[in-house]
Write a structure and sequence with these properties.
With 376 residues, the protein is an all-beta fold. It has a single domain, classed as Beta Barrel (Porin). 1% of the residues lie in helices and 66% in strands. The chain has an 18-stranded antiparallel barrel. Strand 17 and strand 18 form a beta hairpin. It is globular. The two termini are 28 Å apart. 23% of the residues are buried.
Length: 376
């Protein structure tokens, strides 16, 4: 969740597969404030729009406000980001939502070693348009605390990267879903020369709930290739097996595939494609095991005649194990930003959600918002 919400300027977070450096989402000419080597970049957004079915409820106008602040010092390897968001639904007040994000990280570059330490906090809500959620009348608020550490150690043609993370989810109104997620990864990459690396990854994850009957342990072994060519493209293809066991002793094994492609045909364009087939989704809240198959395509075009465009389409299919239950979720987003000046931009966003399942009624949602963003 935090990787999708945070900019890559925060060490340890952001997209893990990107061919180009993170762009500050400024209008042309906007620079933020610089103090020595430290960048301070605030941003304010105000918008209004319409949501046809928030959580399946009646349609309502919506007003959205967002304030964010990025502090980054690339020389010191430090980055911090925070934002607050408020969405108000005048005709469906039960859908009102306040969310906030805060994270920071430090990257220390040593000879043949890169050490990263980071942590983050998120207050958000689960909606009815998500895999493995029951129909709900309003957003289900949760808090997430996350800490992670990685250390990339190089020796000749080999790079060994252990990384650890722990996350705690708490639900103020539904404590039975409270849980701690611990994850351990050990990745060995062999690069004989050129952009191609052979990769072996060992993965472990433990979900610990307040009710021990919900606890699960997952182990996976993946192998494949990874290729990177800065500024042009990035490729990752890993395949292997995953094993999951529950506290009750039930176990399962399944093939696991993770593939990603990032391509930048020009300095202003980026194309990202990711494909995943795995047991559950480590970034979703799940108490029932399922096989997840997901494909996501993202297209971005920056600063075309003062206009930035970004579109995303994602389809997810969940096949629940030991039952005949299954569901499909489609999500699409189209974003446009028109830079009227170095500091002011008009924003337009259209979101579409559609959920089909054989155990609940089909539902879809259209959300259209228009707003103004200020960046110094």
């Amino acid at each position: 969740m935090l990787d999708q919400l945070l900019p890559a300027a925060v060490p340890g977070y952001g997209g893990t597969l990107s061919a180009i450096a993170a762009r500050r989402q400024f209008a042309p000419g906007a620079t933020g404030f610089t103090f020595g080597t430290t960048l301070v970049a605030p941003s304010l957004t105000e918008g209004v729009g319409y949501d046809s079915a928030p959580n399946g409820a009646q349609g309502s106008m919506v007003s959205a406000s967002k304030a964010s602040l990025l502090l980054a010092d690339p020389v010191a390897g430090f980055g911090m980001y925070g934002d607050v968001n408020m969405r108000v639904y005048p005709q469906a007040r039960a859908q009102n939502l306040f969310s906030t994000t805060l994270a920071g990280g430090e990257r220390i570059v040593l000879p043949r070693q890169i050490f990263t330490l980071s942590g983050g906090y998120l207050r958000d809500a689960v909606t009815g348009f998500a895999i493995n959620t029951v129909p709900q009348a309003k957003p289900l608020t949760f808090n997430l605390l996350n800490a992670r550490m990685s250390d990339a150690i190089s020796a000749g043609m080999f790079t060994l990267t252990p990384d650890l993370s722990t996350s705690y989810y708490s639900f103020p109104t539904l404590s039975t879903l409270n849980r701690r997620d611990d994850r351990e990864n050990l990745t060995l990459a062999f690069t004989p020369g050129g952009p191609l690396s052979l990769v072996l990854r060992l993965h472990g994850a433990q979900a610990v709930y307040g009710e021990s009957r919900l606890n699960t342990d997952t182990t996976a072994v993946l192998a494949g290739v990874r290729a990177r060519e800065d500024g042009l493209w990035a490729l990752s293809l890993l395949a292997g097996m995953a094993w999951q066991t529950s506290r009750g002793g039930a176990g399962l094994s399944a093939p696991m595939v993770q593939a990603g492609l990032a391509w930048s045909p020009s300095p202003l364009d980026q194309v990202n494609l990711t494909l995943t087939h795995e047991v559950d989704d480590p970034d979703e809240i799940s108490t029932s095991p399922y096989m997840l198959t997901r494909a996501r395509l993202t297209l971005a075009r920056a600063e075309l005649a003062g206009i930035s465009l970004k579109s995303m389409a994602e389809i997810s299919r969940a096949d629940y194990l030991h039952t005949s239950l299954r569901e499909t979720l489609f999500t699409g987003t189209l974003q446009m930003q028109w830079h009227l000046s170095p500091n002011i931009a008009l924003d337009g966003t259209y979101d579409f959600n559609d959920r089909q399942a054989n155990y609940l009624n089909a539902a879809n949602e259209h959300v259209l918002t228009l707003g103004v963003t200020w960046t110094p």
